[in-house]
Design brief:
Rossmann fold, binds S-adenosylmethionine, alpha+beta, two-stranded antiparallel ribbon, 2 domains, elongated
């Protein structure tokens, strides 16, 4: 915000409104992705981002094209948090096109409205020069809540993996046998896939789904992949 007198607190923040149409509206919030962006800590509600400068700043004859061009990092965070690839993003005050540019990079569809022709043209040129990130790299981390909780024993019960099957660590140096009750046995250690893996590693805990591997068709994959079969059933 402008601070014409400049003799009070320096304006250093802007407020974002995050809202849905009604209480019952569906909305996206990629909590896990934001946590990952923040070194595995829950994302805070105050964000420190550099203002838009350098090669990102649109200029003509050395003069800024738009006085309030937003930094792409800001839109990157907003769009990652609140949308998924192929979603549709609308910016009714497009300006220099930052929202649409980041939307295009992130594989989102976009609409923009801008009343000033100069800004609209600049946004159009900017968008033409923007290349989307490859589709393979656009998946967002699933939120825990949306991940089904499937006990390993259920895969044994359903016959997706049979008692007596051998599972291995990723280097095939350590092996364990699957028992009829969904426990596993490695030498003298027995217990859940997580407990046995943790004992082998001398760790307090270990995610057995990713530690243990098995043959699936012609591939050698983490047993986590077997859960997909469970979901298909
Ligand atoms: C704060 S700027 C947006 C800056 C943009 N986020 C960017 O990064 O460049 C707001 C823009 O909305 C445009 N605008 C204001 N009222 C409008 C209206 N009624 N219809 C369309 N555009 C409008 C202004 O011309 C201005 O470019």
């Amino acid at each position: 915000m402008p601070n014409f007198r400049g003799t009070r607190f320096t304006n250093a923040h802007e407020t974002l409104i995050w809202a849905s149409k009604s209480e019952k509206s569906k909305y996206t919030f990629n909590y896990q992705s934001l946590k990952c962006l923040n070194d595995d800590l829950q994302m805070r509600s105050n964000w420190e981002l550099p203002i838009c400068n350098g090669s990102e700043r649109l200029k003509k004859n050395g003069k800024k094209i738009h006085s309030t061009q937003k930094p792409e990092a800001l839109l990157h965070r907003i769009l990652l948090a609140t949308s998924n690839k192929d979603d549709l993003i609308l910016d009714p005050f497009l300006g220099s096109g930052t929202t649409a540019t980041v939307a295009k990079k992130l594989g989102r569809n976009y609409y923009g409205i801008e009343k000033e022709k100069t800004y609209f043209k600049a946004a159009e040129i900017r968008l033409k020069k923007t290349t989307p990130i490859e589709d393979d790299y656009l998946d967002t981390l699933q939120n825990n809540r949306s991940k089904p909780r499937i006990p390993f024993g259920s895969l044994v019960e359903l016959g997706i993996i049979k008692p007596g099957t051998t599972i291995f660590d990723n280097k095939k140096k350590i092996s364990a046998k699957i028992m009829a009750d969904g426990s596993i046995k490695h030498a003298k250690t027995e217990g859940s896939i997580h407990k046995v893996a943790a004992t082998i590693l001398g760790a307090e805990s270990c995610n057995g789904w990713t530690y243990w591997h098995c043959k699936l068709g012609s591939s050698f994959v983490p047993i986590d992949n077997l859960r997909q079969k469970f979901l298909v059933k």
